[in-house]
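Worked example (supplementary).
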Amino acid sequence: MLKFDIEKRDGLARAGIIHTPHGEIYTPAFVGAATRATVKALTMQEMRDLGSQAILANTYHLILRPGTDLIKEAGGLAKFSSWHGPTFTDSGGFQIFSLPNVKISENGVKFKSHIDGANFEITPESSMQAQWAIGSDIHMAFDHLAKSESRQDMEKAMHRTHAWLDRCAAENEKLAAMAHKNNEPEQYLYAVVQGGIFNDLRAESAKYCASKNPDGFGIGGVFTADGMAEMLQTVNSILPENKPRHLLGMGQEPIDLFDGAENGCDTFDCVGPTRMARNGSLYTLDGRINIKNSKYKHDFAPLMSGCDCECCKNYTRAYLHHLFKTDEITAKILASIHNEHFVVHTVDQIRESILDGTFKDYKAQFLSRYYSK
RNA sequence: GCUGGAAUCGUCUAGUGGCAAUGACAAGAGACUGUAAAUCUCUCGCCUUCGGGCUUCGUAGGUUCGAGUCCUACUUCCAGCA
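After joint prediction of all chains, the assembly is encoded as:
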Protein backbone atom coordinates (compact mmCIF):
# COMPACT_ATOMS: atom_id res chain seq x y z
CA MET A 1 0.00 0.00 0.00
CA LEU A 2 1.22 3.47 -0.91
CA LYS A 3 2.47 5.28 2.16
CA PHE A 4 0.94 8.68 2.82
CA ASP A 5 1.60 10.73 5.96
CA ILE A 6 -0.56 13.67 6.91
CA GLU A 7 1.42 16.31 8.75
CA LYS A 8 -1.25 18.89 9.34
CA ARG A 9 -4.95 19.46 8.67
CA ASP A 10 -7.06 22.57 8.22
CA GLY A 11 -10.65 21.49 7.66
CA LEU A 12 -10.55 19.24 4.61
CA ALA A 13 -7.19 20.68 3.59
CA ARG A 14 -4.08 18.82 4.57
CA ALA A 15 -0.33 18.92 4.17
CA GLY A 16 1.32 15.55 3.80
CA ILE A 17 3.98 13.37 2.28
CA ILE A 18 3.44 10.68 -0.36
CA HIS A 19 6.26 8.13 -0.27
CA THR A 20 6.88 6.61 -3.71
CA PRO A 21 9.63 4.26 -4.83
CA HIS A 22 11.19 7.23 -6.63
CA GLY A 23 11.02 9.59 -3.67
CA GLU A 24 8.72 11.76 -1.60
CA ILE A 25 6.09 14.20 -2.74
CA TYR A 26 5.40 16.95 -0.25
CA THR A 27 1.74 17.81 -0.65
CA PRO A 28 -0.22 19.68 -1.76
CA ALA A 29 1.91 19.58 -4.89
CA PHE A 30 1.58 20.50 -8.53
CA VAL A 31 2.61 17.63 -10.82
CA GLY A 32 4.02 18.60 -14.21
CA ALA A 33 2.13 17.38 -17.25
CA ALA A 34 4.64 15.33 -19.23
CA THR A 35 2.20 13.74 -21.65
CA ARG A 36 4.77 12.22 -23.99
CA ALA A 37 7.36 11.69 -21.29
CA THR A 38 8.45 15.28 -21.53
CA VAL A 39 7.17 18.56 -20.23
CA LYS A 40 6.87 20.51 -23.45
CA ALA A 41 9.70 22.99 -24.00
CA LEU A 42 11.47 22.01 -20.76
CA THR A 43 14.28 19.66 -19.90
CA MET A 44 13.97 17.49 -16.81
CA GLN A 45 16.86 19.42 -15.31
CA GLU A 46 14.90 22.64 -15.79
CA MET A 47 11.92 20.96 -14.13
CA ARG A 48 14.08 20.04 -11.14
CA ASP A 49 15.55 23.54 -11.00
CA LEU A 50 12.14 25.20 -10.95
CA GLY A 51 11.13 22.99 -8.06
CA SER A 52 8.87 20.37 -9.60
CA GLN A 53 8.46 17.25 -7.46
CA ALA A 54 6.73 14.86 -9.84
CA ILE A 55 5.53 14.45 -13.42
CA LEU A 56 2.53 12.82 -15.05
CA ALA A 57 2.74 11.06 -18.42
CA ASN A 58 -0.06 9.75 -20.60
CA THR A 59 -0.50 6.07 -21.34
CA TYR A 60 -2.38 6.67 -24.57
CA HIS A 61 0.41 8.75 -26.07
CA LEU A 62 3.16 6.44 -24.92
CA ILE A 63 1.41 3.37 -26.28
CA LEU A 64 1.35 5.01 -29.71
CA ARG A 65 4.92 6.26 -29.51
CA PRO A 66 7.41 4.97 -28.56
CA GLY A 67 5.45 1.95 -27.30
CA THR A 68 5.35 0.76 -23.72
CA ASP A 69 7.73 -2.14 -24.35
CA LEU A 70 10.42 0.31 -25.31
CA ILE A 71 9.94 2.26 -22.11
CA LYS A 72 10.16 -0.95 -20.13
CA GLU A 73 13.31 -1.87 -22.05
CA ALA A 74 14.74 1.57 -21.18
CA GLY A 75 14.22 0.83 -17.50
CA GLY A 76 10.93 2.62 -17.00
CA LEU A 77 9.59 6.11 -17.42
CA ALA A 78 11.81 7.77 -14.81
CA LYS A 79 15.01 6.35 -16.20
CA PHE A 80 13.94 6.74 -19.82
CA SER A 81 13.14 10.42 -19.41
CA SER A 82 15.88 11.15 -16.91
CA TRP A 83 13.35 12.47 -14.47
CA HIS A 84 14.48 10.29 -11.54
CA GLY A 85 11.62 11.44 -9.32
CA PRO A 86 8.08 10.30 -8.62
CA THR A 87 5.95 9.67 -11.69
CA PHE A 88 2.26 9.34 -12.42
CA THR A 89 0.55 8.02 -15.52
CA ASP A 90 -2.87 8.87 -16.74
CA SER A 91 -4.74 5.85 -18.01
CA GLY A 92 -5.75 7.05 -21.47
CA GLY A 93 -9.33 7.50 -20.31
CA PHE A 94 -9.25 11.19 -21.05
CA GLN A 95 -8.68 10.43 -24.73
CA ILE A 96 -12.12 8.82 -24.85
CA PHE A 97 -13.41 12.25 -24.18
CA SER A 98 -11.01 14.31 -26.23
CA LEU A 99 -10.58 12.32 -29.45
CA PRO A 100 -13.10 12.09 -32.27
CA ASN A 101 -14.32 8.76 -33.62
CA VAL A 102 -13.80 6.58 -30.61
CA LYS A 103 -15.93 3.48 -30.27
CA ILE A 104 -16.77 2.75 -26.68
CA SER A 105 -18.09 -0.59 -25.56
CA GLU A 106 -18.34 -2.39 -22.28
CA ASN A 107 -15.06 -4.11 -23.09
CA GLY A 108 -13.04 -0.96 -23.72
CA VAL A 109 -12.37 1.75 -26.26
CA LYS A 110 -11.40 1.44 -29.90
CA PHE A 111 -9.54 4.29 -31.58
CA LYS A 112 -7.82 4.93 -34.80
CA SER A 113 -4.37 6.21 -34.04
CA HIS A 114 -4.27 9.93 -34.74
CA ILE A 115 -0.78 9.41 -36.14
CA ASP A 116 -1.21 6.76 -38.80
CA GLY A 117 -4.82 5.63 -38.57
CA ALA A 118 -3.89 2.20 -37.19
CA ASN A 119 -6.66 0.46 -35.29
CA PHE A 120 -6.04 0.40 -31.66
CA GLU A 121 -7.86 -0.56 -28.47
CA ILE A 122 -7.51 0.18 -24.77
CA THR A 123 -9.26 -1.95 -22.20
CA PRO A 124 -9.01 -1.67 -18.43
CA GLU A 125 -6.62 -4.62 -18.50
CA SER A 126 -4.45 -3.28 -21.30
CA SER A 127 -4.26 0.13 -19.67
CA MET A 128 -3.00 -1.47 -16.46
CA GLN A 129 -0.49 -3.57 -18.37
CA ALA A 130 0.70 -0.51 -20.25
CA GLN A 131 1.10 1.53 -17.08
CA TRP A 132 3.05 -1.28 -15.42
CA ALA A 133 5.30 -1.47 -18.47
CA ILE A 134 5.79 2.27 -18.40
CA GLY A 135 6.71 1.81 -14.77
CA SER A 136 5.19 4.95 -13.29
CA ASP A 137 4.80 4.98 -9.52
CA ILE A 138 1.14 5.89 -9.55
CA HIS A 139 -1.38 4.68 -12.10
CA MET A 140 -4.86 5.96 -12.82
CA ALA A 141 -7.65 3.48 -13.29
CA PHE A 142 -9.01 3.43 -16.82
CA ASP A 143 -12.15 5.51 -16.66
CA HIS A 144 -14.89 6.78 -18.91
CA LEU A 145 -15.55 10.48 -19.28
CA ALA A 146 -18.97 11.38 -20.60
CA LYS A 147 -19.08 13.45 -23.74
CA SER A 148 -22.15 15.38 -22.68
CA GLU A 149 -23.23 16.79 -19.38
CA SER A 150 -26.63 15.16 -19.40
CA ARG A 151 -27.40 13.23 -16.25
CA GLN A 152 -28.12 10.11 -18.25
CA ASP A 153 -24.69 10.17 -19.93
CA MET A 154 -22.93 11.02 -16.70
CA GLU A 155 -24.59 8.18 -14.90
CA LYS A 156 -23.76 5.74 -17.65
CA ALA A 157 -20.13 6.88 -17.73
CA MET A 158 -19.90 6.59 -13.96
CA HIS A 159 -21.26 3.06 -13.89
CA ARG A 160 -18.91 2.04 -16.66
CA THR A 161 -16.02 3.63 -14.78
CA HIS A 162 -16.95 1.55 -11.74
CA ALA A 163 -17.17 -1.65 -13.75
CA TRP A 164 -13.82 -0.89 -15.30
CA LEU A 165 -12.36 -0.09 -11.90
CA ASP A 166 -13.14 -3.65 -10.80
CA ARG A 167 -11.27 -4.97 -13.83
CA CYS A 168 -8.39 -2.51 -13.32
CA ALA A 169 -8.07 -3.60 -9.70
CA ALA A 170 -8.10 -7.29 -10.61
CA GLU A 171 -5.49 -6.83 -13.33
CA ASN A 172 -3.43 -4.63 -11.06
CA GLU A 173 -3.39 -7.32 -8.42
CA LYS A 174 -2.01 -9.84 -10.91
CA LEU A 175 0.63 -7.46 -12.18
CA ALA A 176 1.60 -6.42 -8.65
CA ALA A 177 2.01 -10.07 -7.64
CA MET A 178 4.17 -10.72 -10.65
CA ALA A 179 6.34 -7.68 -9.92
CA HIS A 180 6.67 -8.72 -6.30
CA LYS A 181 7.81 -12.17 -7.36
CA ASN A 182 10.41 -10.60 -9.67
CA ASN A 183 11.59 -8.23 -6.97
CA GLU A 184 10.55 -5.20 -8.97
CA PRO A 185 9.53 -1.91 -7.36
CA GLU A 186 5.94 -1.43 -6.33
CA GLN A 187 3.49 0.56 -8.40
CA TYR A 188 0.23 1.93 -7.13
CA LEU A 189 -3.33 2.32 -8.34
CA TYR A 190 -5.63 5.31 -7.95
CA ALA A 191 -9.34 4.80 -8.50
CA VAL A 192 -10.99 7.62 -10.43
CA VAL A 193 -14.14 9.30 -9.16
CA GLN A 194 -16.63 10.38 -11.82
CA GLY A 195 -20.17 11.75 -11.69
CA GLY A 196 -19.82 15.08 -13.44
CA ILE A 197 -21.76 18.03 -12.11
CA PHE A 198 -24.19 15.86 -10.13
CA ASN A 199 -23.10 15.72 -6.54
CA ASP A 200 -25.26 12.71 -5.69
CA LEU A 201 -23.49 10.80 -8.46
CA ARG A 202 -20.16 12.10 -7.19
CA ALA A 203 -21.02 10.82 -3.73
CA GLU A 204 -22.05 7.46 -5.12
CA SER A 205 -18.83 7.26 -7.14
CA ALA A 206 -16.67 8.25 -4.17
CA LYS A 207 -18.25 5.53 -2.05
CA TYR A 208 -17.78 2.94 -4.75
CA CYS A 209 -14.15 3.90 -5.35
CA ALA A 210 -13.41 3.91 -1.63
CA SER A 211 -14.92 0.45 -1.25
CA LYS A 212 -12.34 -0.95 -3.65
CA ASN A 213 -9.54 0.02 -1.34
CA PRO A 214 -7.14 1.50 -3.90
CA ASP A 215 -3.89 3.28 -3.00
CA GLY A 216 -5.36 6.67 -3.71
CA PHE A 217 -7.91 8.52 -5.75
CA GLY A 218 -8.11 10.57 -8.87
CA ILE A 219 -10.98 12.99 -9.22
CA GLY A 220 -11.81 13.24 -12.89
CA GLY A 221 -14.17 14.82 -15.33
CA VAL A 222 -13.84 18.32 -13.91
CA PHE A 223 -13.86 20.96 -16.61
CA THR A 224 -14.99 24.11 -14.96
CA ALA A 225 -14.44 25.71 -11.61
CA ASP A 226 -18.20 26.27 -11.31
CA GLY A 227 -19.39 24.11 -8.44
CA MET A 228 -16.02 22.41 -8.14
CA ALA A 229 -15.39 23.35 -4.51
CA GLU A 230 -18.73 22.00 -3.41
CA MET A 231 -18.26 18.83 -5.43
CA LEU A 232 -14.81 18.28 -3.90
CA GLN A 233 -16.26 18.83 -0.46
CA THR A 234 -18.80 16.09 -1.12
CA VAL A 235 -16.26 13.68 -2.60
CA ASN A 236 -13.41 14.26 -0.18
CA SER A 237 -15.66 14.02 2.84
CA ILE A 238 -16.45 10.48 1.70
CA LEU A 239 -13.02 9.31 0.53
CA PRO A 240 -10.86 7.87 3.32
CA GLU A 241 -8.65 10.66 4.56
CA ASN A 242 -5.53 8.56 4.93
CA LYS A 243 -5.08 8.17 1.17
CA PRO A 244 -3.89 10.76 -1.33
CA ARG A 245 -6.22 12.42 -3.81
CA HIS A 246 -5.26 13.75 -7.20
CA LEU A 247 -7.39 16.36 -8.94
CA LEU A 248 -7.08 15.40 -12.58
CA GLY A 249 -6.40 18.14 -15.10
CA MET A 250 -7.24 21.19 -13.04
CA GLY A 251 -4.80 23.96 -12.24
CA GLN A 252 -4.72 26.47 -15.01
CA GLU A 253 -6.49 29.01 -12.83
CA PRO A 254 -4.89 29.62 -9.44
CA ILE A 255 -8.33 29.62 -7.84
CA ASP A 256 -8.68 25.97 -8.83
CA LEU A 257 -5.51 25.12 -6.92
CA PHE A 258 -6.68 26.97 -3.82
CA ASP A 259 -10.17 25.51 -3.97
CA GLY A 260 -8.75 22.07 -4.65
CA ALA A 261 -6.33 22.15 -1.74
CA GLU A 262 -8.87 23.72 0.58
CA ASN A 263 -11.27 20.91 -0.16
CA GLY A 264 -8.87 18.07 0.39
CA CYS A 265 -6.94 17.46 -2.82
CA ASP A 266 -3.26 16.63 -2.47
CA THR A 267 -1.88 16.73 -5.99
CA PHE A 268 -2.78 18.46 -9.24
CA ASP A 269 -1.75 18.25 -12.84
CA CYS A 270 -2.64 20.56 -15.68
CA VAL A 271 -1.42 21.26 -19.19
CA GLY A 272 -2.60 24.85 -18.93
CA PRO A 273 0.52 26.47 -17.51
CA THR A 274 2.87 25.14 -20.18
CA ARG A 275 0.38 25.46 -23.00
CA MET A 276 -0.35 29.04 -22.12
CA ALA A 277 3.34 29.72 -21.77
CA ARG A 278 3.89 28.57 -25.34
CA ASN A 279 1.10 30.89 -26.42
CA GLY A 280 2.47 33.91 -24.57
CA SER A 281 -0.01 34.03 -21.69
CA LEU A 282 2.07 34.39 -18.56
CA TYR A 283 1.22 34.36 -14.87
CA THR A 284 1.95 37.24 -12.56
CA LEU A 285 0.67 37.85 -9.04
CA ASP A 286 -1.58 40.49 -10.59
CA GLY A 287 -3.15 38.11 -13.08
CA ARG A 288 -2.14 36.66 -16.42
CA ILE A 289 -0.66 38.91 -19.05
CA ASN A 290 -0.18 38.39 -22.77
CA ILE A 291 3.47 39.18 -23.26
CA LYS A 292 2.93 39.58 -27.01
CA ASN A 293 0.88 42.73 -26.44
CA SER A 294 2.59 45.82 -27.80
CA LYS A 295 2.49 47.54 -24.42
CA TYR A 296 5.37 45.32 -23.26
CA LYS A 297 7.72 46.33 -26.05
CA HIS A 298 9.51 48.90 -23.92
CA ASP A 299 8.86 47.28 -20.53
CA PHE A 300 12.28 46.58 -19.05
CA ALA A 301 11.00 45.23 -15.75
CA PRO A 302 11.14 41.52 -14.95
CA LEU A 303 8.07 39.53 -15.95
CA MET A 304 7.09 39.23 -12.28
CA SER A 305 9.02 41.10 -9.65
CA GLY A 306 9.93 38.96 -6.67
CA CYS A 307 9.78 35.74 -8.70
CA ASP A 308 12.98 33.73 -8.38
CA CYS A 309 12.61 31.60 -11.49
CA GLU A 310 15.37 31.63 -14.09
CA CYS A 311 13.24 33.71 -16.43
CA CYS A 312 12.38 36.47 -13.98
CA LYS A 313 15.82 36.59 -12.39
CA ASN A 314 17.56 37.18 -15.71
CA TYR A 315 15.28 38.64 -18.35
CA THR A 316 12.94 41.55 -18.94
CA ARG A 317 9.41 41.73 -20.30
CA ALA A 318 10.74 43.64 -23.30
CA TYR A 319 13.14 40.80 -24.05
CA LEU A 320 10.43 38.16 -23.70
CA HIS A 321 8.17 40.27 -25.91
CA HIS A 322 10.91 40.40 -28.52
CA LEU A 323 11.50 36.64 -28.35
CA PHE A 324 7.79 35.96 -28.84
CA LYS A 325 7.41 38.46 -31.66
CA THR A 326 10.34 36.90 -33.48
CA ASP A 327 9.11 33.39 -32.71
CA GLU A 328 12.32 32.27 -31.06
CA ILE A 329 12.30 28.86 -29.34
CA THR A 330 13.75 30.47 -26.25
CA ALA A 331 10.54 32.44 -25.79
CA LYS A 332 8.63 29.23 -25.15
CA ILE A 333 11.35 27.81 -22.94
CA LEU A 334 11.60 30.85 -20.66
CA ALA A 335 7.84 31.30 -20.57
CA SER A 336 7.34 27.63 -19.69
CA ILE A 337 9.94 27.83 -16.95
CA HIS A 338 8.12 30.78 -15.45
CA ASN A 339 4.56 29.47 -15.73
CA GLU A 340 5.47 26.03 -14.43
CA HIS A 341 7.46 27.59 -11.61
CA PHE A 342 4.53 29.85 -10.82
CA VAL A 343 2.03 27.04 -10.30
CA VAL A 344 4.51 24.71 -8.59
CA HIS A 345 5.57 27.51 -6.27
CA THR A 346 2.00 28.62 -5.60
CA VAL A 347 1.01 25.12 -4.52
CA ASP A 348 4.18 24.87 -2.43
CA GLN A 349 3.13 28.08 -0.71
CA ILE A 350 -0.31 26.62 -0.13
CA ARG A 351 1.42 23.71 1.60
CA GLU A 352 3.47 26.07 3.75
CA SER A 353 0.39 28.04 4.69
CA ILE A 354 -1.43 24.87 5.74
CA LEU A 355 1.56 23.86 7.83
CA ASP A 356 1.74 27.18 9.63
CA GLY A 357 -2.01 27.66 9.91
CA THR A 358 -2.32 30.65 7.58
CA PHE A 359 -4.00 29.03 4.60
CA LYS A 360 -7.20 31.10 4.66
CA ASP A 361 -5.28 34.38 4.83
CA TYR A 362 -2.91 33.32 2.10
CA LYS A 363 -5.78 32.29 -0.14
CA ALA A 364 -7.72 35.51 0.39
CA GLN A 365 -4.68 37.69 -0.13
CA PHE A 366 -3.48 35.82 -3.21
CA LEU A 367 -6.82 35.63 -4.98
CA SER A 368 -7.90 39.19 -4.30
CA ARG A 369 -4.70 40.44 -5.86
CA TYR A 370 -4.62 37.96 -8.74
CA TYR A 371 -8.23 38.55 -9.78
CA SER A 372 -8.40 42.26 -8.95
CA LYS A 373 -8.58 43.37 -12.58
C1' G B 1 17.63 57.17 -77.37
C1' C B 2 14.97 52.54 -79.22
C1' U B 3 12.25 47.90 -78.09
C1' G B 4 9.83 44.98 -74.67
C1' G B 5 7.86 44.23 -69.58
C1' A B 6 5.99 46.03 -64.90
C1' A B 7 3.31 49.54 -61.31
C1' U B 8 -2.83 46.48 -56.57
C1' C B 9 -3.61 47.31 -48.34
C1' G B 10 3.07 48.12 -44.20
C1' U B 11 5.61 43.97 -47.57
C1' C B 12 5.14 40.19 -51.35
C1' U B 13 1.03 38.66 -54.20
C1' A B 14 -4.10 37.02 -56.87
C1' G B 15 -7.01 39.40 -60.20
C1' U B 16 -7.80 40.07 -67.82
C1' G B 17 -15.10 43.94 -68.10
C1' G B 18 -19.67 43.40 -62.53
C1' C B 19 -14.59 43.97 -57.06
C1' A B 20 -13.63 47.10 -51.21
C1' A B 21 -10.67 43.63 -54.58
C1' U B 22 -7.21 36.93 -53.42
C1' G B 23 -3.55 34.57 -50.51
C1' A B 24 0.73 34.83 -47.40
C1' C B 25 3.59 37.59 -44.11
C1' A B 26 3.69 41.70 -40.88
C1' A B 27 0.56 44.32 -37.35
C1' G B 28 -3.48 44.53 -33.40
C1' A B 29 -6.38 41.62 -29.99
C1' G B 30 -8.68 37.24 -27.83
C1' A B 31 -8.98 32.02 -26.37
C1' C B 32 -6.56 27.94 -24.03
C1' U B 33 -7.84 23.39 -17.37
C1' G B 34 -6.20 14.36 -16.86
C1' U B 35 -2.19 18.16 -24.49
C1' A B 36 -3.92 15.11 -32.04
C1' A B 37 -2.34 22.62 -29.19
C1' A B 38 5.35 25.97 -30.53
C1' U B 39 -2.25 25.74 -31.50
C1' C B 40 -6.84 28.06 -32.67
C1' U B 41 -10.17 32.44 -33.41
C1' C B 42 -11.16 37.50 -34.67
C1' U B 43 -9.67 42.43 -36.73
C1' C B 44 -6.70 44.49 -40.44
C1' G B 45 -8.99 51.50 -46.71
C1' C B 46 -12.30 55.34 -44.00
C1' C B 47 -17.12 56.11 -41.60
C1' U B 48 -21.35 53.51 -39.58
C1' U B 49 -27.70 54.00 -35.90
C1' C B 50 -24.21 47.32 -38.63
C1' G B 51 -29.01 48.23 -42.95
C1' G B 52 -25.28 50.45 -45.25
C1' G B 53 -22.44 54.87 -46.84
C1' C B 54 -17.84 56.86 -48.85
C1' U B 55 -12.99 56.66 -51.18
C1' U B 56 -9.53 53.11 -53.54
C1' C B 57 -5.46 49.26 -57.64
C1' G B 58 1.39 54.96 -60.34
C1' U B 59 -0.86 60.02 -62.59
C1' A B 60 -4.31 62.31 -66.05
C1' G B 61 -7.78 61.58 -69.66
C1' G B 62 -10.95 58.26 -72.73
C1' U B 63 -14.22 53.85 -74.26
C1' U B 64 -18.36 51.34 -71.61
C1' C B 65 -24.61 50.65 -68.26
C1' G B 66 -20.16 49.25 -65.60
C1' A B 67 -12.73 49.76 -65.67
C1' G B 68 -7.76 47.20 -61.14
C1' U B 69 -8.89 44.85 -65.79
C1' C B 70 -9.63 47.82 -72.64
C1' C B 71 -7.47 52.58 -75.22
C1' U B 72 -4.17 57.23 -75.12
C1' A B 73 -0.52 60.25 -72.87
C1' C B 74 2.67 60.98 -68.95
C1' U B 75 5.74 59.31 -64.55
C1' U B 76 8.78 55.69 -62.30
C1' C B 77 11.18 50.95 -62.27
C1' C B 78 13.26 46.38 -64.74
C1' A B 79 15.46 43.81 -69.04
C1' G B 80 17.64 43.84 -73.94
C1' C B 81 19.71 46.80 -77.87
C1' A B 82 22.38 51.26 -78.82
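Two points are worth noting when inspecting this output. The radius of gyration of chain A is 20 Å. Chain A has a mean pLDDT of 96.
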